[in-house]
Amino acid sequence: VSAGNGCGHTLLTPHSGTLSSKNYPGTYPNHTMCCWRLQAPPGTSLLLAFGDVDLEPSEHCAHSSLLLADPQTGTAYGPYCRNSVPSAPLLVTNSSTVTVLFNSTSHRSGRGLLLSYATSQHPGMGGWMAESPDPALTMCFSVYCPAGCKDIHGDIWGNPSQGYRDTSVLCKAAVHAGVIADELGGQVTLSREKGITLYESAFANGLRSKRPGATPISPVGVSGFPVCCLLFPACDDVLEVVAFNASSWWHEVDMLGQDRSWVAERAALSTTGHSWAAEPGTEAAWLELDLGTRRNVTGIITKGSSEQHNYYVTSYYVSSSRDGKNWRPYRGSSSQEDKVFEGNADSQGEVSNAFIPPMVARYIR
User: Fold this and answer.
1) What's the per-residue H, E or C state across the chain?
2) Name one GO molecular function term (predicted).
């Protein structure tokens, strides 16, 4: 739980989480406080990673400070500020409960703080930034990404098929690639390989990656080593749709009196020309995909209709069925509400959304 007027981005779960001061990484406000209470499952202990602690310096950190307390053992850590920083980036506690207290008085500078935590079940926590390993070491590595890293400050360049520039925020890239859900976090295994000079931008899982400007990236970095990219395991198996069905479809009659049917069969992603569209004015329209047999479905790609009409779907729900009669709404990894997927913002680009956990179904709506 969190309380106070100085709390910024916060996502706390029993196994991991992310928290920051208000306005981070901009200057935190004067005269604010926030108290976060972190609670891990019984029998585990908490590990805290200091992503950034930049509070205006003062004697004994009296003006602005970060203080951590373990109520079970009576141990305190800090206070911390710019002239009294944590001695190590990772704090290993012996407690399943930790209180994090941030407060500020009058000050002029400071980004504030950014912390993550995980339980002792996930010791390999990291990934605030993709800190490239020594080129002489192995090119494969694994980190634990905490929940809540989607909305932290920092950019990602690339996409799942090309990989991501290794200056990208690693865990944010993992959410974009669909290998973890932001609301849960998780262990990520990836490889570091020679990169390319230009990465295409993509929108996926609620995040847009960046595309560098017109000038290509130099293939050699300042250290003299080639620019590298981060590659996550990707699923390239495109499932075949045996049949399409829909709640309705649009029978268009153009200005010349010619008829054109936007039928369900035209919904396949590879179809050229116009796509499927529901009857205008229809509420709760749906499109149904029959995969022929039960399959493991890990995600979906959507695109609008770019021929003459700037049509696209901005958001949607997903339901699944094994028999075509009994339908189960998709609710994601931890929610009790039906998940709303963020769709397209134009009729040209493709948008990917991952199903974490995946669905086993024959029919998808």
Assistant:
1) CEECCCEEEEEECCCEEEEEECCCCCCCCCCCEEEEEEECCCCCCEEEEEEEEECCCCHHHCCEEEEEEECCCCEEEEEEECCECCCCCEEECCCCEEEEEEEECCCCCCCEEEEEEEECCCCCECCCCCCCCCCCCCCEEEEEECCCHHHCCCCCEEECCCEEECCCCHHHHHHHHCCCCCCCCEEEEEEEEECCCCCCCCEECCEECECCCCCCCCCECCCCCECEEEECCCCCCCCCCCEEEECCCEEEECCCCCEEEECHHHHCCCCCCCCCCCCCCCCCCCEEEEEEEEEEEEEEEECCECCCCCECCCEECCEEECCCCCCEECCCCCCCCCCCEECCCCCCCCEEEEEEEEEEEEEEC
2) signaling receptor activity
Task: Say which range, 100-109, 118-127, 223-232, has the weakest mean pLDDT.
Answer: 223-232
Mean pLDDT of 58-83: 92
Q: What is the CATH number of domain 140-231?
A: 2.170.130.20
Cα gap 220→23, rounded to integer Å: 35
| In the chain, domain spans | 2-119, 140-231, 243-364
The residues, ordered by sequence, that sit 6+ positions from 211 with a Cβ below 8 Å of its Cβ are 157, 198, 199, 200, 201
Residue 319 has pLDDT above 90, yes or no: yes
pLDDT digits (tens, 9 = 90+) for 27-50: 999 999 999 999 999 999 999 999
Structural class in CATH, domain 243-364: mainly beta
Segment 201-214 mean pLDDT: 84
pLDDT 10s digits, 256-296? 888 889 999 999 998 888 899 999 988 889 999 999 999 99
The predicted model scores a pTM of 0.84
Instruction: Single out the residue of 97, 112, 86 nearest to residue 32, CA to CA.
Output: 112
Residue reference for tokens 């079970």: 72
Q: Which residue has the tokens 């980004």?
A: 111
Q: Phi and psi at residue 363, in whole multiples of 5°?
A: -115, 135
Q: In terms of CATH, what superfamily is 2-119? A: Spermadhesin, CUB domain (2.60.120.290)
